[in-house]
Amino acid sequence: MAKVYFMPFLKWLHTSASSISPTIATKDIVFDIARQCNGPYGSYDHPIALLDLYLCSFASGQFQPMVEMVAIDCVDSPGARIKCYLRTGVTTLQQAREAMTLGGRIKNGDTDATLELLGELWGVLFRSKVGSHEEIETKSVLVEGAYCHLAVEMKAGDPGSVETKLHIPVNKVADGGLSDEVICAGLGEWFAKRGHGEFDGGYRKELAEAFENLEGTHTFVSFTYTKKTGVYMSMYYSPQTHAGMELNGGFSEVLDGGKVERDVWEGYDDLVRGVRNAVQQGAAHGKE
Q1: Which helix (H) or strand (E) holds 186?
Q2: Hey, which of 99, 216, 255, 280 would disulfide with 248, CB 3.0 to 4.6 Å?
Q3: pTM for this model (two decimals)
Q4: Interatomic CA distance for residues 147 and 83, integer angstroms
């Protein structure tokens, strides 16, 4: 099945740069497009309203999630989905639980199990970075400027169809980071707990056979759960592609015999922050 992806962020940049008080937000662009997909299989109005309530629930001064990308299934089917990908401010387990339920707005038979399993996975991945059980809920485990992404999946005509998936940047962990060996060991343990004992140790072996150099391989680990599918995870890799360059959410260059770290996303993040600051300053100026 084909999908189309686009980034409303680019339209937002254009309107933000051309107006002191821009009227078009990325969520508005995405929601307008989603409504145009209303048809014989139903409406996207309910899931749109649910997501919008969550996005509007953040107080002034808080990091407000931003819709950065949208994916639309190119198929004429009642099962066709629209996925919104959000940049969030999530760096703690407590925040991750809030995001997975859209601030408590998703309540169904899967919710309790989803949050419990998310807590287990978070503990396996980050236990070396936290102390007590209480601390694991509230301690930020990511470096400053890093954050989890949230995918919100919607189907037309089904008010209970909204599902979320959390993307955790395991290559952006604070306090010295996590080596790929530690990530492999943690994921192997997690797979064994889920009844896949063949991956306890086997996961690292498979990766080592696929990639010449493991270090810098893992970038994101995504997680979601439903009773129908069980735990559904994806591991995202950015392995070493050739000598002198390692992709790890960025890359390393060899210059004059020395290794210089450079994050390829740094410019993108700086651009977002710059436009956001300009918009906020313009809004504040307009209130004077």
Answers
A1: helix 180-193
A2: 216
A3: 0.81
A4: 19
DSSP letter at 242? Answer: B
- Dig out the tokens for 151 from the structure: 């995918």
3-state secondary structure at position 175? coil
The amino acid present at 227, given as its one-letter code, is: K
pLDDT at residue 246, rounded to an integer: 42
Cα 238 from Cα 203, distance rounded (Å) = 16
Amino acid (one-letter) located at 155: K
Phi, psi of 8 (to 5 degrees): -65, -15
Structure token pair of residue 64:
């407000």
107 burial type by CB count under 10 A (0-12 exposed, 13-18 middle, 19+ buried) = exposed
pLDDT 10s digits, 69-88 = 999 999 888 889 999 999 99
The three-state (H, E, C) secondary structure of 10-64, written as one string:
HHHHHHHHCCCCCCCCHHHHHHHHHHCCCECCECCHHHHHHHHHHHCCCCCCCCC
Q: How many CB atoms lie within 10 A of CB 126?
A: 22
Q: How far apart are the first and last CA of the chain?
A: 52
Largest CA distance in the chain: 64
Angle of the 8-17 helix axis to the 26-35 helix axis, nearest 10: 130
Distance CA 182, CA 19 (A): 48
CA dihedral 82, 84, 85, 88 (to 10 degrees): -150
Query: Within 13 Å of residue 57, how many CA atoms lie on the same side as its CB?
Result: 13
The predicted model gives 219-248 an average pLDDT of 77
Work out whether the CA dihedral 234, 98, 36, 6 comes out positive or negative.
Answer: negative
